[in-house]
Amino acid sequence: MSPHATQDTAVPTGTNNWWKEATVYQVYPASFYDSNGDGWGDIPGVVKKVDYLQSLGVDVVWLSPMYDSPMHDMGYDVSDYENVLPAYGTVQDVESLVEACHLRGMKLILDLVVNHSSDQHAWFQESRSSKDNDKRDWYFWRPPRYDEAGNRMPPSNYRGYFAGSTWTWDEKTEEYYLHLYAKEQPDLNWDNKTTREAIYNSAVRFWLDKGVDGFRVDTVNKYSKHTSFPDVPITDPKSYIQPAIGMWCNGPRIHEFLREMYDEAFAPYGDVMTVGELANTPDPKNVLEYVGASAKELSMVFHLDIGHIGMGPSLEEKYIFTPWKLTKMKSIVEKWQSFIEGTDGWTTAFCENHDNGRSVSRFGSDAPEFREISAKMLALMMVTMTGTLFIYQGQEIGMINAPREWPIEEYKDIEGLGYYREAEQRSENGGGPTRKENIMDGLRILARDHSRLPMQWDDSEHAGFTTGKPWMRAHDLYGEINVKRQENDASSVLSFWKDVLRLRKEYRELFIHGAFQVLDYENQETFCFVKSRDEKRALVVLNFTDKSQPFTQTEKTAGMKLLVGNYSVSSLGTLKPFEGRVYM
Ligand code: TEU
Fold this sequence. Notes:
Helix content is about 25%, strand content about 15%. The protein is of the alpha/beta class. The protein has two domains: about 25-120 and about 195-415 and about 450-500, Glycosidases (TIM Barrel, Alpha-Beta Barrel), CATH 3.20.20.80; about 515-584, Immunoglobulin-like (Sandwich), CATH 2.60.40.1180. An eight-stranded parallel sheet has the order 15-14-12-5-2-1-17-16. Strand 18 (about 515-520) and strand 19 (about 525-535) form a beta hairpin. Helix 11 (about 370-385) runs parallel beside helix 15 (about 495-505) and helix 12 packs antiparallel against helix 13 (about 435-445). The relative contact order is 0.11. 1-O-alpha-D-glucopyranosyl-D-fructose binds near residues 218, 219 and 277.
């Protein structure tokens, strides 16, 4: 705690960078709005909706990858950092989007995907062409090993994120190459300075020169590997490949690399906003090493814990749904709300993105009678949280997971399908639900696909997303859940989000900069917390159940008045199902 910080002071507002008080809206280009009827969202479509985003109260648009790509991982496999996927448009379209945002006093950040490129990138095509190609060392190539029977084996026993080994054999040069994700996503060798310089030029400076205001940095703590690639201990006895995230998360040179990228690529352009996607870093003091202003690495990070609620405890169990209690969410939220207090760091507030199921389905209830009220309750939690707020397309209208009865054929995501197909191959030891059935159950709640259904604009065919055949099926309930139906309805989820986003700015000292403290830690039904700064206080009260609950903190409301709630009428001592209230 710095000597100047009082008990309540969270973060000195002196370093009030523009991005601290911003509300950021994540656009997933494939599913946002299709302007030319080809069934794919596109950048001219985003330009057409910038006024809608401004009316919501959005300050910054985060555009997920729109670069040229074979689309194995929906654009997180970049084949040309300096070009745009033709289905999404052109480089000029991105420049038009920058201008459309800047004209309205808004900003635009892109997605920086530089842990790996696509295997179709010219760099990899050269690297794989021969062992003595001057780009050979731009990726990780290693010779095979052989087991006692003389069978060729990969250099190490690592499991990748999409199931399967992190190594793929290349027949031409008779070596394996490393890919933490799909085999079409070879890892770039950041240990090679020439590679880093090429990344800074092609993926960063090229877009900052076009007026882009920053980046969401993909897999930000995975660039420094333990390059001897030792085998890891066996934790999954049923498999040769083993989770090995410690071999690439927070590696030996990661801070050197991120500091260099800050000094060489970001800092020359002024106050560039960067938000890193930080995985597997449970200790807050290690996170501060990335986001402390004095570290000069990143503005802030997403800590993925909240996205992993309900997932299994290990990489291979990720899509085995695991029941959770509210205390788990409280401990996660409290940890990543409080870790910056008394420091020069900054934090983020989010509960949805393109990699996770919908928050109403996961943390509220998508039952017809509770869908809207729980969406508003979650909105109250988000807008009162400290840090930069991120909302994901469709969250503002209460979009929900795909219907449980959709078959696996409607799921498109490489990660979930990887787990499903791996389960199909695993021999079952009979009795009880098979791994495949368990994985399917998990995907119905947790799959990344749920956030990638077409944005629901109106009740015309395909939810007004496209006049063509959408690349992914629109939700069956788009007639009930859509922007047009909510825009002029004062009691809608969308109207509620607009109102509470305004309140967040009006009470920024408390909601954006306040200290966070949980009041009812052991209560598994309600989540009550206080935001405080100097003598100011706000009390946030959330019922996470579909039943009425006693409000146990009534004495804490003494001297306070109800600022906002998601029910028009409420009685002090009882919280209605999914009732949320903010007292000031
Ligand atoms: O995700 C990083 C990642 O490892 C994800 O699997 C994440 O940990 C998990 O799915 C959800 O919490 C980033 C991108 O967000 C993701 O879309 C890409 O597939 C991945 O990197 C590879 O670029």
